[in-house]
Amino acid sequence: MSSLRSKLVRAAFGALAGLLAAFTALAVAELLAGLVRPAAGPVTVVGGAVIDRTPAAVKDFAIRTFGENDKIVLQLGILAILALIAVGLGILAMSHRRAGAAGVLLFGIVGAAAAFSRPDSTGTGDVLPSVAGALAGAVALYVLAAKAAPVHTPDGQPGTGGWSRRGFLAAAGVTAVAATSAGALGRYFGGRQGQGAVASRENLVLPKPASPAPAVPAGVQLKVPGITAFTTPNADFYRVDTALTVPKVDAGTWRLRIHGKGVTRPLTYTLDQLLARPLIERDITLTCVSNEVGGPYIGSARWLGVPLADLLKEAGVIPPSRGGKADQLVARSVDGMTLGSPVEDVMDGRDAMLAVGMNGEPLPFDHGFPVRMLVPGLYGYVSACKWIEDIELTTFDAYDPYWVKRKWARKAPIKTQSRIDTPKPFARPAAGIVTIAGVAWAQHRGVTRVQIRVDDGPWQDADLAAQAGVDTWRQWSYRWNATPGGHNITVRATDGTGQAQTEQRTRTVPDGASGWHSVFVTVP
Smaller CB count within 10 Å for the chain: N or C? Predict the structure, then answer.
């Protein structure tokens, strides 16, 4: 029993030593990342590498299951796996200190490789946090394992009391305090790196648009409890991207480069130069390609920006329909993300823009400050590059952007869709008149008709709210005389070309979900 107790105590010491070593490694790495570049932290770079190598179907599952919390879940998962491995290495180190320490170093190599492979890598500097953190963690584990070495009793039997326990606990306390201090300093320095960006946003005064958005018509917003607001507040606007750490770009140092195939005059712009140009203001609804039928990844805002076609024309770009050499515009973000848009769509007269404002204020960091791109009528993954810094003109044959390499479609016009906002699924409305209401969208084509079907009854026309424009969603409502029992309510829309929303149900991959949205309710 004494031997078993000794082994258990030894294993507990090892587990604690491993966890403290991992904590030390992450804290020192965060300190170095705060000094070098916050995005170079090991959890961030490894998480980014995992995202890059995750199949599209798995990404789709993560977004469906965890929504905008998918990145938090990924980071927690990485930390949980790291903790389990750290416990194992700590227990190993109780008998083989060098082997345990070497295991910690191995994870440093993994982190360094991930940092170096990231598309936004700045070079060897991004490797330092993972390497330095692993070295610190390895040293911490070796020392703690040595302090936990058993003290032998006079009869030669291993013991766990006396100097060994006190020495281990003292070393563990010192390690925990030192690691916590290093982590706090890392957060401090990392925060300071973003202070310039925060100040540049706070001090930015948006100019008035040369072409203001038309006044929103009366009747755009229906007075129906539970229906989605026509304009989505910035804080509620959906966010779907791969950035584990939201880039904070200083507007004063930001630059945009336009170059590539068919560009006769390569151009570079500062933010001040863009703001000095005639700006347009438009209400535009954006949709993520990961939005399932009836899903939440859609929002509408009033955007302020520079017409993108004007910038391309100044660079000498000609659309393919007029003999231009480039048919794809590749937008690059500061975090290395690449999105590809059809040049023809960008230059066909729609309000494609480089946005600088959102609902009357500078872009939030989550949504691309200082500048993002958006093209009405296209899903975000082929049009809505956030934190944009580079525009290259090329061809679809010559280059595959990030999502195309992961089996998503090259071109992705938004499909006609509609959603029931109220009543909610499995609601229990009272018998009598029940207002069914929701939104429908077919950006750049507009919505001209919405129909409702209850159970297997005939399709009935819903009442349409006023339409603000073809690039925004449209609200609708239908007064239903609800009778007792269970009922299935289905909606479909028709766009401005006369094309009805298809019943065919498809998943989001490769070019967006399709199908009719329905909810089941029970009338008592």
Answer: N
